[in-house]
Amino acid sequence: MKQRQMQTRLCTSLYLALGVALGALAKDENAGDDPFTGAVPSLRIEIPVEGMRVLRQYHQVWRQPRTERIDVQATVREAGRVYTNVAIHLKGSFTFQPIDAKPSLTLHFDKFAPGQHFHG
Closest by alpha carbon to 88, among 67, 103, 66, 78? Predict the structure, then answer.
């Protein structure tokens, strides 16, 4: 059993290393516009008091029926860009964290502002 675990870990490590190597070799002609290459963008998310109230009321319990996720409006600032009317909701089931912890968020830039996209 222990040998099988070691083999599984070795295979996983090799797959990860291969993925990183292939990712490094891949060239994207639009890499200058890609926010996920180079430096990690720093975002400032501003959620109004009413939006925070809604997010604080949302709770997900593992293996329980999921309550409806309500999107709240927020403003997202990144470098010199300002995105208004961004829809945000909490995500996660097993990994759910409340808004005042370390939550995972889903941001929809064009739900409340059709045609708005993060970095195009």
Answer: 103
Phi, psi of 76 (to 5 degrees): -115, 130
Q: Report residue 4's pLDDT band, with 50, 70 and 90 as the boundaries.
A: low
Q: Can you say whether residue 63 is alpha, beta or left, with left for phi > 0 and alpha for psi between -120 and 50 degrees?
A: left
Which pLDDT score, from 0 to 100, does residue 33 have? 63
In sequence order, which ranges of the chain are alpha helices (DSSP H)?
Answer: 2-25, 49-57
Amino acid (1-letter code) at residue 65:
P
- Encode 36-71: b = buried (16+ Cβ within 10 Å), e = exposed: eeeeeeeeeeebeeebeebbeebebeeeeeeeeeeb
- According to the model, what pLDDT value does residue 18 have? 40
Q: Which residue has the higher pLDDT, 80 or 3?
A: 80
